[in-house]
UniProtKB/TrEMBL annotation, chain A:
One of its GO terms (cellular component) is plasma membrane. NCBIfam families: PRK08386.1, PRK12567.1-1. It is found in: Cell membrane. InterPro entries: CPA3_antiporter_subunitB (IPR050622), MnhB (IPR007182), MrpA_C/MbhE (IPR046806). Pfam families: MbhE, MnhB. Keywords: Cell membrane, Membrane, Transmembrane, Transmembrane helix. Residues 27-86 form the MrpA C-terminal/MbhE domain. This is Cation:proton antiporter. Residues 98-221 form the Na+/H+ antiporter MnhB subunit-related protein domain. It comes from the Archaea. The chain crosses the membrane at residues 65-84, 105-123, 129-149, 161-183, 203-225.
TrEMBL record, chain B:
The chain crosses the membrane at residues 6-27, 39-59, 65-90. NCBIfam families: CPA3_mnhG_phaG, PRK12674.1-2. This is Na(+) H(+) antiporter subunit G. InterPro entries: PhaG_MnhG_YufB. GO terms for molecular function: sodium:proton antiporter activity. It comes from the Archaea. The keyword Isomerase does not apply. The keyword Membrane applies. Keywords: Membrane, Transmembrane, Transmembrane helix. Pfam families: PhaG_MnhG_YufB.
C-alpha cells in the first residue's frame, strides 16, 4: 500500500515536471527548420511523394540500416536463447474447421497486401517495416490455425541474410558511383523515372530498398514466431 | 452525383446507429455468448454501412473513384474476417469453460461432447 502510494506520488511529480517542460513548446505553429528543406526538396531530390520514406531511406539511410541491424540481432538473439537440438511444435488442439479454412483462404490475400505495402512505400503510407510485419502476420495466422504448420526454416534464414546483404550492396554501389554510402544512384545518376513522379516506377532506389527490407523483416519476424512457438521435446 | 452523396450519408448514419446498438448490447447482455452475438453482428453491419457509405459519399462529393474501390475492398475483407474471429473467440471461451447464462436451457454441444466421451470410453473398455 505504502509502496503503491509512493510510486503514484513519484510518477505524478515526474509527470508534472514533464508537463512543465512541454508547456513552453507552442502547439500548431510553424517550427520547421530542417523539415522545411525536406518538404521543399523531396520530390526533385528523391522522386518520392511520401516524404517520410524519403527521409527514412534517402536522407537518413543509416538509421534504417541500424534498425534493420537491431531486428536482425533480436532475431538471432531469440534464436540463440531458445536454441535446443530437439524442438518441435507441441500444440495439441486443432483449430475448428471454420478457422483453418478461413486462414487458408486469407493467407495469400494477407501476403499480397503486405507486398503491396512495401512496393508502394514511396507513394502511400507504409514501407518496408509495416509490409514485412504484415507478411509475418500471415505466417502467424498459419501457425495459430494449424498444429503441424512449419515454415521452411533453412530457406527463411538464408533469405533473411541475403536481403540484409542486398541492402548493404545497394549502399555500396552508391559508394562506388556517387562517392558516399547509400547514394541514390538510380535517381541521381540514371535519372530513372524522373518524368513520372507519383507513379510506380519512380522514387529512385526507395522501392528497391523497401522490397529488400520488407522481405527481410517478414522472414525475420516469422523466424522469431517459429522459434518462440516450438517447445523442447522430451525423449 | 449528389444522390450518391445522400446515399452515402444515410449509410454512415445507419452504420453509426448499429455501432451504438452493438455497444449497448455489450452492456445489456447477460453472458459472454450473448454479448459476442450482439457485438459481432451489429458491429459488422455497422462497419459495412460506415465504410461503404464513406466511399459513396466521397465519390458523390466529386472525389476520385479510388475511394469507393478501397472502401469496398476493406468492406469485403471485414465481412469475411469478422465472423471467423468471432467464431474463434466463442469457441475459445467455451473450451476454457466459461459458463452459459443461468437462464439458458439447452446446451446441445455439451451433450454432444459427453456422448462422444462416453462412446470413446466404451470402445476403450471393449478393447481391454
Amino acid at each position: 500500500m505504502l509502496k503503491r502510494a509512493l510510486a503514484i506520488v513519484v510518477i505524478l511529480i515526474i509527470g508534472y515536471w514533464l508537463a512543465q517542460g512541454l508547456s513552453q513548446v507552442p502547439f500548431g505553429q510553424d517550427k520547421m527548420l530542417v523539415g522545411k528543406y525536406y518538404l521543399e526538396h523531396v520530390k526533385e531530390q528523391t522522386g518520392a511523394v511520401n516524404a517520410v520514406t524519403a527521409v527514412v531511406v534517402n536522407y537518413r539511410g543509416f538509421d534504417t540500416l541500424g534498425e534493420v541491424t537491431v531486428l536482425f540481432i533480436a532475431s538471432t538473439g531469440v534464436g540463440a536463447l531458445l536454441w535446443r537440438k530437439k524442438r518441435k511444435r507441441t500444440a495439441k488442439t486443432e483449430g475448428s474447421v471454420v478457422l483453418t479454412t478461413g486462414s487458408k483462404l486469407l493467407f495469400p490475400f494477407i501476403m499480397l497486401f503486405g507486398m503491396y505495402i512495401f512496393i508502394h512505400g514511396h507513394l502511400t503510407p507504409g514501407g518496408g517495416f509495416p509490409g514485412g510485419a504484415t507478411i509475418a502476420t500471415a505466417f502467424l495466422l498459419m501457425y495459430m490455425a494449424f498444429t503441424i504448420y512449419e515454415i521452411p526454416h533453412k530457406g527463411f534464414e538464408v533469405t533473411e541474410g541475403f536481403a540484409g546483404m542486398g541492402y548493404v550492396v545497394v549502399g555500396l554501389i552508391g559508394l562506388a558511383i556517387g562517392g558516399y554510402f547509400l547514394f541514390d544512384w538510380i535517381w541521381q545518376t540514371w535519372h530513372l523515372g524522373t518524368s513520372n513522379i507519383g507513379r510506380l516506377f519512380s522514387g529512385g532506389f526507395i522501392p528497391v530498398i523497401y522490397t529488400i527490407i520488407g522481405i527481410k523483416v517478414g522472414t525475420e519476424l516469422s523466424g522469431i514466431i517459429d522459434n518462440m512457438l516450438k517447445e523442447e521435446v522430451k525423449e | 452525383m449528389s444522390v450518391l452523396a445522400w446515399i452515402g450519408e444515410f449509410l454512415v448514419l445507419f452504420g453509426t446507429i448499429f455501432y451504438f446498438l452493438s455497444t449497448l448490447g455489450l452492456i445489456r447482455m447477460p453472458d459472454v455468448y450473448n454479448r459476442m452475438q450482439t457485438a459481432t453482428k451489429s458491429a459488422t453491419l455497422g462497419s459495412l454501412g460506415v465504410i461503404v457509405g464513406t466511399g459513396l459519399w466521397a465519390v458523390g462529393k466529386g472525389l476520385s473513384i479510388a475511394w469507393l474501390t478501397k472502401a469496398i475492398v476493406i468492406g469485403v475483407f471485414l465481412l469475411l474476417t469478422n465472423p471467423i474471429s468471432a467464431h474463434a473467440l466463442i469457441r475459445g471461451a467455451y473450451k476454457s469453460g466459461i459458463p452459459l447464462w443461468e437462464g439458458s436451457v439447452v446446451d446441445k454441444y455439451r451433450e454432444h461432447l459427453e456422448k462422444k466421451a462416453s462412446e470413446k470410453k466404451e470402445v476403450e473398455e471393449g478393447e481391454e
